């Protein structure tokens, strides 16, 4: 029996020394010292011993247990230290490594060009007005001389909240809101989102942006409109930009016009960019209709004004030669980081 105990101790110490893993150590503890372990198995046979031998073997067994426990403790300590060292080594920071560059965000191309446009008009004495995107039918249509059933509504189908409330199809309602609140002289631009129930393709989106402009004062004429907008286009596209005004119709201006600028790719010859026209349309404009002035409480006998409205996406597309409007809304950094 003594031999067996010594054998256990020898085996245990050898195995503990070989063991390199804390979980394995626990298995060894169970195997040698556990309730069903090898040492216990020997002690169960103590009954077979003579009364003289029993205390001697008992003492030896206690020594063996103590030795194995001591060896176990030692190994646990060693392995834990080794583990800790490995962890510290793995976590060590190499201060000589190059750092990760922090990527700074930048303005969206739409915002960038809008800021430029605002800057141009602020420089001409305009201020910026805002209006709601969820708008009364009255402001979006009725007050702008577009009564229910007017054919102009066909091209501006939108999303209806109810019969009287729509997602605005244009920034023109801000004209009405401004004139209701403010007496002339008025000089405002109003950029913002507008909505139409158009299917998405390369040139259409149910959400896009417009910039509205409105000037009302005594003695405002078509010459003021032409001068202001010509200066605007030249500031935006460069002094060499050529513009032309073409008669058009809008229900809320009279007379109305569209403003084109000469295609900078072909200089009026006609090419793919301008679809053979030689000119590219940039905005709608006109003298504010007397009916609209009167509706807003401004006497058209005393005051006159001009207004204009342009689509931001188109201007930005021309500026950067972007051929698909969907790119603006996809949030693809490969696209956005180019501007
Ligand atoms: N709101 C018009 C549109 O969406 C654009 C426009 C034309 C605005 C003439 C104006 C204007 O202020 O005078 O097509």
What does this structure look like?
The protein is α+β, with helices and mostly antiparallel strands and about 350 residues long. It has helices spanning about 1-20, 20-35, 40-45, 55-90, 110-125, 135-140, 175-180, 220-235, 290-295, 310-320, 335, and strands at about 125-130, 135, 160, 165, 185-195, 205-215, 245-250, 255-260, 280-290, 305-310. The protein has two domains: about 1-90; about 110-335, Bira Bifunctional Protein, Domain 2 (BirA Bifunctional Protein, domain 2), CATH 3.30.930.10. A hairpin with a 2-residue loop joins strand 3 (about 160) and strand 4 (about 165). Helix 1 (about 1-20) runs parallel beside helix 4, helix 2 runs antiparallel to helix 4 (about 55-90) and helix 5 (about 110-125) crosses helix 10 (about 310-320). The mean pLDDT is about 90. 3,4-dihydroxyphenylalanine binds next to strand 9 and strand 10.
């Amino acid at each position: 029996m003594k031999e067996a105990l010594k054998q256990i101790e020898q085996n245990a110490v050898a195995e503990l020394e070989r063991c390199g893993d804390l979980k394995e150590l626990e298995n060894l503890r169970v195997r040698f010292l556990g309730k069903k372990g090898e040492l216990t198995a020997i002690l169960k046979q103590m009954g077979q011993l003579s009364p003289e031998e029993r205390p001697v073997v008992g003492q030896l067994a206690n020594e063996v247990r103590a030795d194995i426990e001591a060896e176990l403790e030692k190994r646990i300590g060693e392995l834990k230290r080794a583990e800790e060292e490995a962890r510290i080594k793995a976590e060590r920071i190499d201060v000589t490594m190059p750092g990760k560059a922090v990527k700074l965000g930048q303005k969206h191309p739409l915002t960038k060009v809008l800021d430029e446009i605002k800057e141009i008009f602020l420089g001409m004495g305009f201020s910026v007005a805002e209006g709601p995107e969820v708008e009364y039918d009255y402001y979006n249509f009725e007050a702008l001389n577009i009564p229910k059933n007017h054919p102009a509504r066909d091209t501006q189908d939108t999303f209806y909240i109810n019969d009287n409330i729509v997602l605005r199809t244009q920034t023109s309602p801000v004209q009405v809101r401004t004139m209701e609140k403010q007496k002339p002289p008025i000089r405002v631009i109003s950029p913002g989102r507008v909505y139409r129930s158009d299917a998405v393709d390369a040139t259409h989106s149910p959400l896009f942006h417009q910039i509205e402009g409105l000037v009302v004062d005594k003695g405002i004429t078509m010459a003021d409109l032409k001068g202001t907008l010509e200066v605007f286009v030249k500031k935006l596209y460069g002094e060499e930009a050529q513009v032309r005004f073409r008669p058009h119709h809008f229900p809320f201006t009279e007379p109305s016009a569209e403003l084109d600028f000469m295609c900078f790719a072909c200089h009026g010859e006609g090419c793919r960019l301008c679809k053979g026209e030689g000119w590219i349309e940039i905005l709608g404009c006109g003298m504010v209709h007397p009916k609209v002035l009167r509706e807003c409480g401004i006497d058209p006998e005393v005051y006159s004004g001009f207004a204009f409205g342009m689509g931001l996406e188109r201007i930005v597309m021309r500026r950067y030669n972007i051929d698909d409007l969907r790119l603006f809304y996809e949030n693809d950094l490969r696209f956005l980081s180019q501007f």
